[in-house]
Specification:
This protein has 426 residues and is α+β, with helices and mostly antiparallel strands. It has one domain: Orthogonal Bundle (Cytochrome p450), CATH 1.10.630. The chain is 50% helix and 12% strand. The chain has 17 helices and eleven strands. A hairpin with a 2-residue loop joins strand 2 and strand 3. Helix 8 packs parallel to helix 17 and helix 10 crosses helix 13. InterPro entries: Cyt_P450, Cyt_P450_B, Cyt_P450_CS, Cyt_P450_sf. It comes from Promicromonospora vindobonensis.
Length: 426
């Protein structure tokens, strides 16, 4: 029997036991060791545990290969984003109160995030148009102002957790400001988005309901008062049938800010502050800040696994593995970005290479990579420009955020003082 035949065996996903959890992988000291072990046993597509509710293990196929991820992301006729196609939904297997149930609802919400084909196109076009209409210079200036205010609150010197004091508020408030929210409302949305990322099923549902109500009221006010922010551009788009569709579409970048921007800013600052060779390349001009951000996406991806599973429409073979109709597939972004098949042994060969999958690819690719990069680049630059920061890592290493989706240090214990020049690293 060939290895390919073994991998394409008839195991049912629900019959497999002893599965590695996604959270175990993302919070490990080295996730790539987990991916290597899974590849050695299963190939590029491996069974994993998304979540455990009481005694019920909720399984999925983790897609790890770069080529396999690209195939799934580009093939919505085979692999749907609509969770109505998930067997755990249509066979009523999913326990009540799960976190994954909020990301993969049986009744898809009216946003391109949850739909395919014609409906996806109808709902995606307004977001693409609104992002295209944004004044990026204004976004940069708003983000710079936000960073300066947060840095002012940090004081001329001090110590503490850089994630809580800087990375989270800057990333999130920059995005909510782009949507036209004031700082007070942005802070409330930030608290609710944190509950969505880290809470249990009941907390997630309540936080999502509060966010929806806040965004819906904001849409009505922006339509009445006008503006040039992202919400104002969405509010009058012809494709939307009602305000609920606008609100749901606006919530996507809010959630993305909570999940992705904080992780990307944190990971980048962590690497610059902890890796002297990387810091020397940045301060010496051999690596631009954009190059640094891309190196983090390639080699230390802040998105371990996409929180948007796909669902097989029919039985299909993928990576030598039989995927059954109704199975869930999780896109292994960090595994794909670390796939040895797409790397060389020379780091300089990959400078400014942006073929990583942190933005996804295909019809459901992230709509706002330019906006996210602009905010992240500004946030990192402003801190390093205005503060001399020294990382005070414990001897046993930093704890990693407990999440099945994102990877970044849970805390960055640092000391800081106002910079006297342009030096950035302590």
């Amino acid at each position: 029997m060939t290895q390919r035949t073994i991998r394409a065996g008839a195991e049912r996903l629900e019959d497999l036991s002893g599965l590695t959890s996604l959270t175990e992988i993302t919070s490990a000291p080295d996730p790539q060791e987990h991916y290597a072990a899974l590849r050695a046993r299963w190939g590029e597509v491996a069974p994993v545990e998304i979540e455990r509710k009481d005694d019920t293990v909720i399984p999925a196929w983790l897609v790890m290969g770069h080529a396999e991820n690209c195939h799934v992301m580009r093939s919505e006729l085979e692999f749907s984003r609509n969770a109505a196609n998930w067997r755990w939904n249509y066979d009523d297997l999913l326990p009540a109160g799960t976190a994954i149930g909020t990301f993969a609802p049986a009744e898809p919400r009216p946003t391109a995030f949850y739909h395919d084909d014609t409906e996806r196109k109808r709902l995606r076009e307004p977001l693409d148009d609104a992002l295209e209409a944004l004044d990026e210079r204004a976004v940069r200036d708003q983000t710079t102002y936000m960073c300066e205010r947060v840095i002012e609150r940090m004081g001329d010197s001090g110590s503490g957790d850089l994630v809580r004091s800087y990375c989270q508020p800057v990333g999130f408030l920059a995005m909510t400001t782009t949507l036209g929210f004031d700082l007070e409302t942005g802070a409330r949305l930030m608290a609710d988005s944190a509950a969505v990322v880290g809470g249990d099923g009941d907390q997630v549902a309540k936080a999502q309901a509060r966010t929806a109500a806040t965004v819906l009221e904001h849409i009505r006010l922006r339509r009445r008062d006008g503006g040039r922010d992202l919400t104002s551009h969405l509010a009058d788009h012809k494709n939307f049938a009602h305000d609920g569709e606008i609100a749901t579409s606006a919530i996507v970048p809010v959630s993305a800010a909570a999940i992705f921007l904080t992780a990307w800013i944190t990971q980048t600052l962590h690497q610059v502050l902890s890796d002297r060779r990387l810091a020397a390349r940045v301060t010496g001009g051999r690596l631009t800040l954009d190059g640094t951000l891309d190196e983090v996406l390639w080699r230390r991806s802040p998105i371990g696994h996409s929180p948007a599973p796909r669902f097989a429409r029919n039985d299909v073979e993928l990576g030598g593995r039989l995927i059954r109709k109704g199975d869930a597939l999780v896109m292994g972004i960090a595994a794909a970005n670390g796939d040895p098949a797409v790397h060389t042994d020379d780091l300089w060969d990959e400078v400014d290479n942006r073929s990583h999958l942190s933005w996804g690819t295909g019809p459901h690719a992230c709509p706002a990579p330019r906006l996210a990069r602009l905010i992240a680049r500004t946030a990192v630059d402003q801190l390093l420009r205005h503060m001399d920061v020294t990382l005070r890592a414990p001897d046993d290493g930093l704890p990693w955020a407990s999440s099945p989706w994102v990877r970044h240090p849970e805390q960055l214990p640092v000391t800081w003082h106002r910079a006297t020049g342009s030096g950035v690293v302590g």
